[in-house]
């Protein structure tokens, strides 16, 4: 789950708060059904001040390949976008580039960091095994040299915009980009999404779907206080989420 509704901006030669963002692992599973039920399907929840609120079903906005690499003393999350072939208005809205990389760090769950919630309850902390916990020492942040950190729910990550062109050349890596189509797209195979269930314009054409193109789901999940965006996202994600995440519109998700 990403705060502020989009990936960090990447502005060459500058540094600003917009170039960094938090991310939180809210689900680890190998079952596509869990992803559908907990993250992709329509839902509703009730607030004290605004009454019943509704979250529309998720719409795919891109598909690609990624790699986590060590570079100049830090780790970077690099990706290349396969679908859509040319990013459009949908991708621009969420700061999804054709290719990009971000410095990525994982937070020590036992140390307070301004803008990031410290987990006081043991059941809210990521349950890292000892060999991973020991890597933190007394540091607030460490590199993601071991990708297993991201396998644990409630893992907090920091992303800082690094580069948005010549990513593979700059990092000395090769990301196995493939030419995808509606028939070969991994999002349908891996997540077991049916083509008739989601609007296809965003992921294949880069365009926002029209209202009539969004199907109305038969079942809508009821969320409790710990699940709806203003609660889970705000409390676990950081100060920005706590003040701005009043609805699902302020949250975007990515899956790996």
Question: How is this structure best described in words?
Answer:
- The protein has one domain (3-250).
- It has helices at residues 32-40, 89-93, 130-133, 167-171, 186-190, 201-205, 229-237, 239-244; strands at residues 20-24, 43-47, 51-55, 63-71, 74-83, 99-107, 141-143, 156-163, 221-222.
- The protein has 256 residues and is α+β, with helices and mostly antiparallel strands.
- The protein is 19% helix and 22% strand.
- It starts with 19 loop residues before the first strand and ends in a 12-residue tail after the last helix.
C-alpha geometry: globular
The main β sheet shows up as: 6 strands, antiparallel
Q: How much of the sequence is in beta strands?
A: 15-25%
Oligomer state equals single chain
| Sequence of secondary-structure elements | EHEEEEHEHEEHHHEHH
Number of strands: 9
The domain count comes to 1
Binned, the helix content reads 10-25%
Notable features of this structure?
256 residues, alpha+beta, 6-stranded antiparallel sheet, 3-stranded mixed sheet
Short description:
With 256 residues, this protein is an alpha+beta fold. The chain has helices at 32-40, 89-93, 130-133, 167-171, 186-190, 201-205, 229-237, 239-244, and strands at 20-24, 43-47, 51-55, 63-71, 74-83, 99-107, 141-143, 156-163, 221-222. The protein has one domain (3-250).
Architecture blueprint of SSEs:
Layout: E1 20-24, H1 32-40, E2 43-47, E3 51-55, E4 63-71, E5 74-83, H2 89-93, E6 99-107, H3 130-133, E7 141-143, E8 156-163, H4 167-171, H5 186-190, H6 201-205, E9 221-222, H7 229-237, H8 239-244
Parallel strand pairs: 2-9
Antiparallel strand pairs: 1-8, 2-3, 4-5, 5-6, 6-7, 6-8
